[in-house]
Write a structure and sequence with these properties.
- By secondary structure, this protein is α/β, with parallel strands linked by helices.
- The protein has a single domain (about 5-245), classed as TIM Barrel (Alpha-Beta Barrel), CATH 3.20.20.
- Helices cover about 35% and strands about 30% of the residues.
- It is built from ten helices and twelve strands.
- It has helices spanning about 30-40, 65-70, 85-95, 105-110, 110-120, 155-160, 185-195, 205-215, 225-230, 235-245, and strands at about 5-15, 15-20, 25-30, 45-50, 75-80, 100, 125-135, 135-140, 145-150, 165-170, 200, 220-225.
- Strands 1-4-5-6-7-10-11-12 form an eight-stranded parallel barrel, surrounded by six helices.
- A hairpin with a 2-residue loop joins strand 2 (about 15-20) and strand 3.
- The chain is globular, with a radius of gyration of 16 Å.
């Protein structure tokens, strides 16, 4: 049986881990290197490291910080933010990343997904999609959620899979930081329509929310930030709870 994954997310701005609500009102959550080491020892299945202002500031992801994080962890480690070329990915993988996450750059240049998948393998390529509901439609947003597009979530997700993405990291901007639960209806549709793993992001507040997204949202992995950063949920306690609900997890 394929186990469900628990993934802490380290959103980085100015070299520090931050967390906000609905992509705004950011507050400091600690040193990313220290947090990464803590999570690796605490039972996290993977880590995601997102340099959230790299695209907006038109600069590359902080490769030296990636290297320092990778030195401290022994679990798969995904890096995103400001990635727009094969060369960018090459540098990050050389500095210790296991996978990369692309978002705005993939929308602006969809061929990038094909190129990265061909060069590094689809298992290495995660496409992150930030979307919010506008007039009942899930609409893709870019540049850390600041720039709406006319692209619909499910159309883009299907194209992303066709082009060679190995996973999709779907963040509901409506749910981000609210701690009201994941966007399970949208997640279930993604999981049903696609054949690649879907990572749920945005809305984790309780252990029940994780159970719900695995059972009702059919997600393959659940990503969260503040509930882990601020010690509201312990990862191993969460996994014990999930196991009691009949959900397969790695202990």
């Amino acid at each position: 049986m394929i186990t469900k994954r628990i993934i802490p997310c380290l959103d980085i701005k100015n070299g520090r881990t931050v967390k906000g609500v609905n992509f705004v009102d950011l507050r400091d959550a600690g040193d990313p290197v220290e947090l990464a080491e803590i999570y690796a020892k605490a039972g996290a299945d993977e880590l995601v490291f997102l340099d959230i202002s790299a695209t907006e500031e038109r600069r590359k992801t902080l490769a030296d910080l990636v290297y320092r994080v990778a030195e401290k962890v022994n679990i798969p480690f995904t890096v995103g933010g400001g990635i727009s070329s094969v060369e960018d990915v090459d540098i990050l993988l050389q500095n210790g990343a296991d996978k990369v996450s692309i978002n705005s750059s993939a929308v602006k240049n969809p061929q990038l997904i094909n190129d990265l998948s061909a060069k590094f393998g689809s298992q290495c390529i995660v496409v992150a999609i930030d979307a919010k509901q506008i007039n009942g439609e899930w609409i893709v947003h870019l540049v850390g959620g600041k720039q709406p597009t006319e692209i619909r979530l499910f159309d883009w997700a299907r194209e992303v899979e066709r082009r060679g993405a190995g996973e999709i990291l779907f963040t509901s901007m409506d749910h981000d930081g609210t701690k009201d639960g994941f966007a399970n209806e949208a997640l279930a549709r993604l999981s049903t329509e696609l054949n690649i793993p879907i990572i749920a992001s945005g809305g984790a507040g309780t252990m029940q929310h994780f159970s719900d997204t695995f059972i009702h949202g059919k997600a393959d992995a659940a990503l969260a930030a503040s509930v882990f950063h601020f010690k509201e949920i312990d990862i191993m306690n969460l996994k014990q709870e999930l196991k009691q609900h009949g959900i397969a997890v790695r202990m």
